[in-house]
Amino acid sequence: MGAFLEKPITVKHNERGEGNGLRFGVGSMQGWRCEMEDAYHAKTGLGEKLEDWNYFAMFDGHAGDNVAKHCAENLLQRIVSTTEFSNNDITRAIHSGFLQQDEAMRGIPELASGADKSGTTAVCAFISREHLYIANCGDSRAVLCRNAQPVFTTQDHKPILPGEKERIQNAGGSVMVQRVNGSLAVSRALGDYDYKQGTALGQCEQLVSPEPEIFCQDREPSDEFLVLACDGVWDVMSNLEVCQFVHNRLQLSDDLVEVANQVIDTCLHKGSRDNMSIIIIAFPGAPVPSEEAQKREQALETTLRQRIEAILQQMSDVNFGDLLKELASEDIPDLPPGGGIYAKSTFVSDVFKELHP
């Protein structure tokens, strides 16, 4: 379940890059959790005969970060080293790579002894010039956006899904309070070997399965961006809200790290209590900054400043939380779609500190 801090850690880890006509930005923040258990891998151009290929992956660890970090460091090589990948059978290569990775980690001493009981979700994307392969295992999620709308999304692997529940029960387990044996909130994951002890069962028949669900999409000129994020984001923002928000912010700035940071800041102010991590991969069809959008944002900030000044004059002994709640109750035009006033929390905080030192 995880313990929480008295105040969130908001220092961010960032990475940016570009290649093969793609750009990406990563934003990651510990937030309220006592530990940071997210990990990721982002790479354009995979070397040698794979220069046209690109790989992005997000891992959300639980009960420790060991498995998440190990997968971030090794899953890519595990997949591209398969015979299936050499034969251009990418879907089977990803499936095989996930299962091989899960089996190989059993040999890590601390995992083999049971001293480390960690596991991780995994969502990854292989992007070629023509295709987009997405694999999901757990409840991190991938969302593809066109025209500010989600056109594809992975399904979270939760124990209450009929197929997942049936496998869990067939393996001798149960689903209580929407968790595997009343404990684990995801029904598929890498690691979590306490839930993979059925010697008479196949690798994908255990209480918790390492089997990825894999999808292949043709790339389209209208593709704007792909988002990979952990549930610290999806707990408080829907697929549509993330697509609308990122689309809107890209009309103000082409800095994907800045946009990624705005997403996780918005999630924090919307009440996310988990680690928050996101990768935004922009395709050639992504929105570009426009003067009209920038003028609209300037007008919004002018309006917000005026409202903050008025509220501070009307209310005595106001704090930032009260100010934000008051602004949230008002009908303020042109707030960022998908984020609302929470997406302007940093601006509101800066003005509040200036006017109310």
Automatic annotation (TrEMBL):
Entry membrane topology: Lipid-anchor
Cofactors: Mn(2+); Mg(2+)
Residues spanning the membrane: none
Cellular compartments annotated: Cytoplasm, Cytosol; Membrane
Keyword Magnesium attached: yes
Keywords: Cytoplasm, Hydrolase, Lipoprotein, Magnesium, Manganese, Membrane, Metal-binding, Myristate, Phosphoprotein, Protein phosphatase
GO cellular component, one term: membrane
GO molecular function: magnesium ion binding; manganese ion binding; protein serine/threonine phosphatase activity
InterPro entries in alphabetical order: PP2C, PP2C_BS, PP2C_C, PP2C_C_sf, PPM-type-like_dom_sf, PPM-type_phosphatase-like_dom
Listed Gene3D superfamilies: Phosphatase 2C, C-terminal domain suprefamily, PPM-type phosphatase domain
Domain PPM-type phosphatase: 23-283
Pfam families named in the record: PP2C (PF00481), PP2C_C (PF07830)
Annotated family: Belongs to the PP2C family.
Protein name per the record: Protein phosphatase 2c
Record organism: Anopheles triannulatus
